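Hello again,

I reread your note about wanting to compare the complex against the isolated chains. To keep things tidy I'm splitting this into two emails, and this first one only covers the full assembly. Below are the input lines as submitted, including protein chains and any nucleic acid or small-molecule components. They are followed by the predicted structure of everything together. The single-chain runs will come separately.
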Amino acid sequence: MTYRAPVADIRFALQEIAAMDGLKATGAFDELSDDLTAAVLEEAAKFANDVLAPLNRSGDLEGCTLKDGAVTTPKGFRQAYAQFVEGGWQGLQFRPEHGGMGLPRALGSAVLEMLQASNMAFGLGPMLTFGAIEALIAHGSEDQRALYLPKLIGGEWSATMNLTEPQAGSDVGALKTRAEPDGDGSWAVTGQKIFITWGEHDCAENIVHLVLARTPGAPEGTKGISLFLVPKFIPDAKGAPGKRNAVKAIGLEHKLGIHGSPTCVMEFSGARGWLIGAENAGMAAMFTMMNSARLNVGVQGVGVAEAAYQRALTFAQERRQGRAPDGEGPPPHAIIDHPDVRRMLAVAKAKIEAARALCYHCAVSADEAAFDPDEEERAWAKRREELLIPLAKAWSTDIGVEAASLGVQIHGGMGYIEETGAAQHFRDARIAPIYEGTNGIQAMDLVGRKLPMQGGLPLRELLEDIRQTAEDCATSSNPDLPPLAKRLRPAADALERAAKWLTDSRRERADALAGAAPFLKLVSEVTGGWLLCVGAVAAQRRLKEDVGDPDYAEGRIEIARFFAEAVLAAAPAALADICMGEDLLPGDAALGVE
Amino acid sequence: MTYRAPVADIRFALQEIAAMDGLKATGAFDELSDDLTAAVLEEAAKFANDVLAPLNRSGDLEGCTLKDGAVTTPKGFRQAYAQFVEGGWQGLQFRPEHGGMGLPRALGSAVLEMLQASNMAFGLGPMLTFGAIEALIAHGSEDQRALYLPKLIGGEWSATMNLTEPQAGSDVGALKTRAEPDGDGSWAVTGQKIFITWGEHDCAENIVHLVLARTPGAPEGTKGISLFLVPKFIPDAKGAPGKRNAVKAIGLEHKLGIHGSPTCVMEFSGARGWLIGAENAGMAAMFTMMNSARLNVGVQGVGVAEAAYQRALTFAQERRQGRAPDGEGPPPHAIIDHPDVRRMLAVAKAKIEAARALCYHCAVSADEAAFDPDEEERAWAKRREELLIPLAKAWSTDIGVEAASLGVQIHGGMGYIEETGAAQHFRDARIAPIYEGTNGIQAMDLVGRKLPMQGGLPLRELLEDIRQTAEDCATSSNPDLPPLAKRLRPAADALERAAKWLTDSRRERADALAGAAPFLKLVSEVTGGWLLCVGAVAAQRRLKEDVGDPDYAEGRIEIARFFAEAVLAAAPAALADICMGEDLLPGDAALGVE
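Full-complex prediction:
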């Protein structure tokens, strides 16, 4: 079967767990209502299900081609992109004054999840444009915003992020592309960038490249990097695409997956560009793009996981093999009734729901951080957003790979055959833990920047929320909820101990970094588990008040409980791994370095 | 870089951990000596490094083609196969009376690891032949053995296993292929088999298909299955390939990986075949093949993990990015010096060494079970072999996928580009948890058959060995060893508790099956960790006696220690997951079944 957007799950996560509707109180989202949310999600679901999903496998098979600098995307992508533009999807979460619909970023994240799930290769194009729009809003001049934002927010033009060079990947500061003043306020940008997603394509009428480069005499490293706007076609006096700029795609990568997404080598040969923000302040602008993009990549992880899960779930209902202990009717029974297959489905489903809740909670926090009228609330929300971004990016994308791998496994031999589609998710999903800052970089960001922020305040606040929910579970009248508290509390305690160890003032940086990756996993699991418990409490309220489908509500409690036993219960045991210290990492001889 | 067989690691695991040299005492391996082991491994390494590894990527790119029933393997495969035959590699572990070299299966496993690591697609061909040889030795008639064994053991002819049909995958008993008596002692076999590895190819002069089929009036299910030998060319009076039989490849699967291995749809149209063993006793013969094949697939998991690891290790030494906390010289530093990258390498390396030790211990046990003159020793070894087979198969292949995924991650963006080679390992590795009995089937075998065997004796014996090694570590004069005992003991205790819960006489079958997969992981981690501790004790003895390279010995202790902290310390926390029971698996509504 093809993907069907899980609207009920998405609404539950947005409204019952991430409390998106609370954003109305900020005064910034007057139009937000239950009906509007439902209508937007249904429309997006239709677009994802009916337009994008059918292009997913053909796009993978066909891939992109480059000829004379022009990239042809797979059949149907152009038309789908036109429908994307027509639907106004690119502008959903931007302010009306910039030409957007003025809806919450959280709702935009939900729509993005559907794009990514139905067709990850397609969804990457709009995702990159999001980041560029945010960078322009935050750092562009008034003229730049007036000229570019309407086109980008409308989707007629797309955008790219040009960071990576062969010698400068995770180490952005090592880049060599240079920009020299042209004398008329513009700059001549020269250099080569690699791994440029949707760097060239045939879907939009113009492409706006945001390019990191060095100006003459710039300091070394990240302090000497500036951000430039380099349009493929230089806008003419009317703002329409004019003269072709000296930038072109000179290569396409042959990748493991996302074949429908053109990953370009871009050559800038004295291309005309304009500085965004101040000279040498490119890293700040880049972080604006990156923060947006990191959450979006997390959402992408959720999306690809969901798509893989749905495919496996359908297969598990249809495929009949052997005798299941509690199978109904005569064998062969559907494999979903074999406990081991049901467990694999449950692992994927529970982690997907947890990661989705985490991403949406992060997005609602971003909305609050931007729009809450109260300064302290904004500051609180900003801390929460910043703390969650590395978790949303890294944990969700790891779950994307895990769910895709489970999806292959559930299919058995059929999972290894390309035509089944399970293998494509496995190939597609594998990029997300790498780009927009590898998951290792996320762990360093968490331990090196987010954890020590304001003396550890963001994590303390999170722990407080977690313990409050544990209390809610412990005192619930529904006997299925107190066992959640039993797993959540020790997990929170372990998290606190691990954080204490990592931020101890005597701790060597290398020791903290050695434990960063398992620590990120621990915080994510505890946070994800907490949010599922928030969902369970909400589900219990629904049951009590007889609101909505009781089976659905019961299901949320079952999922929280499964996650608590299968994941949360083991979380505290990660302490030894996290607090191992660098000394216990094997040396070169042990690793076989010659 | 291309793969270099890790001869030192392999010898350490074979001789110091799995105690292969102890097999001499059985009297069945008189020629076995340190020199011979070294010579065999060096020769095999040469073949793997110089002949097979260079064909790995080209084989992946080129794949196999089917035309008019004939399969062409990738360029170079035929020549490599000829060298394989010439080297006598197929017969290494078979008895001289059958035309083999009479060396231990354990040594054969080590050689097989190199074949699989250097070129998994190629290595699959010989692997299938191994299983067929074992089935013929165990169940074939004298005539069948005389006719087929010399050709198969010599490698001139290859063999296949024909089990799977579209409706009969894990549920072998559901197969429909039928065999009817021809009247002259032979049978006419008719049906379609899928996923037949090396079912047709151009490397060997004949292909011997072992085919599961039903005879007229056979009981339903697994009790009515018989095994037939169906040669591609029917041997003439001189035993040379004669008349073409009515079996042919009618399709090739388009797979995620192992493109160089032809995965065929085979059609048997009244093909002439001969019964192997008794009518309706096919499952027993199949289990002979399967037991052999399962350990071999585990070895394959180790191999592909090693290949992926080596590639990542080389990249991590060459790639320079940013400033590492303890980096030497001016930045950028090699990424191996970033703690997070070193941790990823360490996780892969430690798990590979543990899984290798587990597979070789299983192989040595198989040798003892076959050849020890003492009946009790044989019985003990058989119990150990049987207990370890599902672990070797499932855990090693999961590690294959994990190490390949870590390998991609360590490469960063380059890992996602096919030409780097990391992605191929990721694609190739993914099949191993599926075939020869999915890893879920292995978990069912462990919990349903191996664990309750003889009242739980095999696991009790294993726990005894583990606790003895913990004692050895605890009392060691080397201060690095007692901490191993600190992690090993509680892990063994947890394993014992989990086993007790699973085998409790009041336990429902569904509850035990619900915990089977995490239980398999726990037994494997504890067993793998134990074997690394056995290695650490041996390394300490070497250090004390000043034998061999002290850095290498120190490295083994570091790896054991890392595994103990990163994996063993968390093992006991799996209890909640294992002992959850079926009731806590989410129901259909929770999973989103409509």
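For quick reference: Chain A has 19 helices and eleven strands.

B.
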